[in-house]
Amino acid sequence: MEDPIVGSDEERRGSAAEVLFAFLKLGLTSFGGPIAHLGYFREELVVRRRWLADHTYADLVALCQFLPGPTSSQVGFSLGMMRAGWLGALCAFLGFTVPSALILLTFAFVTPAIGGMVGAGLLHGLKIVAVAIVAQAVWGMARNLCPDRERSTIALAAVVAMAFVPGSIGMLGAIVLGAAAGPVFCRGETKPVGNRVTVPVSRWMGGVSLLLFLALLVVFPLLAEQSQALAIVDRFYRAGALVFGGGHVVLPLLDAGVVRGGWVTHDAFLAGYGIAQAVPGPLFTFAAYLGAVLGPEPNGILGAGLALLAIFLPGFLVLVGALPFWDQFRSKSLAQSLMRGANAAVVGILGAALYSPVFTSAVADLRDFVVALAGFLALIVWKAPPWLVVVLSALCGVGLALIA
User: Fold this and answer.
1) Of 16, 50, 304, 339, which has the highest C-beta tally within 10 A?
2) Where do the H-state alpha helices sit in 250-295?
3) Ranges of H-type helices in 14-70
4) How far apart are CA 218 and CA 191, in angstroms?
């Protein structure tokens, strides 16, 4: 059954400009992370603008949650493509991504100018709020992705793997082992397949896109020694290629790539991650901040551009590659069990990152812990918006610095 978009053939098509303005509005107003973004998308594009049917939107979301990469950006890219072809897909990406990228780029340039106790306290408060944000992500993901003993055990095994093999190798190994354990321990009931998601992508084009996705994973590490620019592209591409289960999972991947690699300090990394929670748009635009503050050149605007494009590219390649084969693949119980195991391992990876570097780099005493705990409770119990928690935690950091 195909019913990708409501209305007649003429109503199904739109202009690239229409897509750009719709997603620019979303890029300026979509606070709260990937799950909240999907709610904004549905309200604006399904309910208000009636670009597509609700059940088709649900199928599209299911596809993007299944794949590695930034879920909300992948959904937006697909919606733009469905509405106005490839140019519409590009406009959807630019409209949703550029506002938050510019804000974070500005923060990267302004932060070094803030000195003294106020500046130090502000940065410390942003590091503390990262503890609350990541703890909330671990809590929510564990409830959804590890609801039974089998998947909880896989998550624990991933933490153990990270304890003995830190960095990107440990993360990749944990995801692979989790996926391998899925068919053994997490078969469960096969979910029914809904309506088809149709976009202008042929099987041939999808196959080429998947091959390119895999080829770049191999080629970029081989070329990384040739120049610093290629090294930046390599590390951010690998981070974007291994993100399963939500945008917050990019935190340990980027930490392994740029902090352990000596390009960005722990303090600058966590401060940028904290401020990324307070801006609208995709969390992956954190890469723009990191690219700007890198120690080795190219950094600044050029570094931000390289990092931003490299981290989004793999998610879009694998999305285009999966679209023509999605209906057949998602109906198989093996595919669903593989992802159950991989997603459980991702929870463990993010849990390990919650301890190090997030907690160990931010919480120095009981007062810091109180601020972090208050932020966590504000998010979980009081349902406070993340931007408000970020602002209050930053102010608390300044206050602690002034009374120290």
Assistant:
1) 304
2) 250-254, 266-276, 286-293
3) 16-29, 34-41, 54-66
4) 34
In this predicted model, what pLDDT tens digit does every residue of 59-70 receive, in sequence order?
A: 788 788 888 899
First to last CA, the chain: 65
| CA proximity to 121, closest of 404, 379, 389, 361 | 404
Give pLDDT tens digits for 131-147.
999 899 899 889 988 99
Its pTM stands at: 0.86
- Looking up tokens 């995801």, which residue turns up? 175
Per-domain residue ranges for the chain? 9-95, 98-403
Contacts of 317 (CB under 8 A, 6+ apart): 209, 210, 212, 213, 216
User: Which residues are within 8 A (CB) of 17 and not within 5 positions of it... i.e. 6 or more apart?
Assistant: 91
Q: Tell me whether the omega of the peptide bond preceding residue 192 falls within 30 degrees of 0, making it cis.
A: no
d(CA 271, CA 321): 35
For 380, other C-beta atoms within 10 Å of its C-beta total 14
